[in-house]
Amino acid sequence: MADYSVNKPIWPGSSSFTAGSTPFGYFDNDARFQNDVDSFAKFAAQTLGYPIMDVELVDINFYTAYESAVIEYSNQVNQVNIANNLINTLGIQTGSSFLGANGFTGAVVGSSLSYITKLSKAYGVEADSGGTVKWYSASLELVDKKQTYSIREAVQTSLGITLSNTSSIEIKRVLHNPPPALVRFFDPFVGTGLGSQNMLDSMGFGSMSPGVSFMMQPMHADLLRLQAIEFNDQIRKSHFSFDIHGDDIRIYPVPGTQGSMATQYFGTVWFEFLFEEQKSRDALLFGNTALITGAVSDASNIPYTYQQYSTINDMGRAWIIRYAMALAMEMLGFVRGKYSSIPIPGAEATLNGSELVSQAQTAKDTLITQLREFLEKMSRENMLTRQNAEATQMGEMLAKVPLKIYVG
């Protein structure tokens, strides 16, 4: 068995930190960190039993534990910040000039409607109220007695393009409607038979057209007249309509002549449409006209860096000290766990490696849980809920304040 006591590195009693002594060096150039890390090394060694007992750790072990604790603290804080601010930073280029070397770390990120605005554009495409997808127009040249037409052929002819087999067209609007009733309302002969012609003749306006349309009558009379015109066309005539099945559009009524009567129809029917592949592409690009690289897309690339150590307050540094202490305890447990006991003259000394590791892991879990619970209280959602509760309570308190009676 190897002699554990020979050349055994132990804590010498003091340390002097220099930049480059930690594994990553994230905080080595921070003057506050340089001072605190030496103080922690002394604190941790004495807490672990020095100088009454040897502590089988050296300065770089304590430095590593302290740096790891600061990294863990920054990670926990940044997780909450990312959850609060991701929706307001999606699409921001990570290399933007307004972002410094630390990105959003240590900065207040305001709320905006950027995400909601982009999301509303997608709804706008479907609701015909804007959006990012371009609409196109094409027309059908109606043929006598031909009722069914190919949409794809009409698009290719109107735009002068050739559609691939995978191109999909989504019809948004077909401009195939009867003439508005208002057109016939102002017809110069519309007054005949409506009970107003005799009155016009008595006033000397019977032969003046279209003055018949501007008599001072109640508003409901005009509305009823419009409705009568529309009902007449809808019930007594072939209604203007259409059906779309797959690539075909069927026009109603049948264009041209039906029997001995000529059916009124428009020689050209226009329709508006969009290409579904463009809608899918814009949905992926989320409102941008080109694919943006180097932009915030999810929690993995939102620019948060480790916290600047000198700006961490006393509450945060207290947590860091306790967590670093647990790491140092765990580290010492691993070292002592290499040998369950060491020989001494006439007996053996049992080491407490496994006990230190168990206590350290429990302490770490407890500290992480406490920090997460505290940070969750600081989330934007919980703060708004708390402010609402405070406002409600304040309102109830103010309601109990006696009101003055004003005597004039």
Give a brief outline of the structure.
The chain is an alpha+beta fold and 408 residues long.
Written overview of the protein:
With 408 residues, the chain is of the alpha+beta class. The chain is built from eleven helices and ten strands. A three-stranded antiparallel beta sheet has the order 1-8-3. A hairpin with a 2-residue loop joins strand 4 and strand 5. Helix 1 crosses helix 2, helix 2 packs across helix 9 and helix 2 packs parallel to helix 10.
Measured as a percent range, the helix fraction is: 40-55%
What overall geometry do the principal axes of the alpha carbons give? elongated
Q: Count all strands and give the number.
A: 10
Largest sheet: 3 strands, antiparallel
N- to C-terminal separation?
Answer: 103 Å
User: Could you say which structural class the secondary elements and strand pairing correspond to?
Assistant: alpha+beta
Percent in strands = 5-15%
Low-confidence stretches: 1-5
Largest sheet, spatial ordering of strands: 1-8-3
Order of helices and strands: HHHEEHEHHHEEEEEHHEEHH
Labels describing this entry:
408 residues, alpha+beta, 3-stranded antiparallel beta sheet, 11 helices, 44% helix, elongated
Task: Give the arrangement of secondary structure elements.
Blueprint: H1 31-47, H2 59-89, H3 114-127, E1 136-141, E2 148-150, H4 151-159, E3 169-175, H5 181-185, H6 197-202, H7 219-236, E4 241-245, E5 248-252, E6 257-258, E7 261-262, E8 268-275, H8 276-285, H9 314-337, E9 341-344, E10 347-350, H10 353-377, H11 380-399
Antiparallel strand pairs: 1-8, 2-5, 3-8, 4-5, 6-7, 9-10
Helix pairs in contact: 1-2, 2-9, 2-10, 9-10
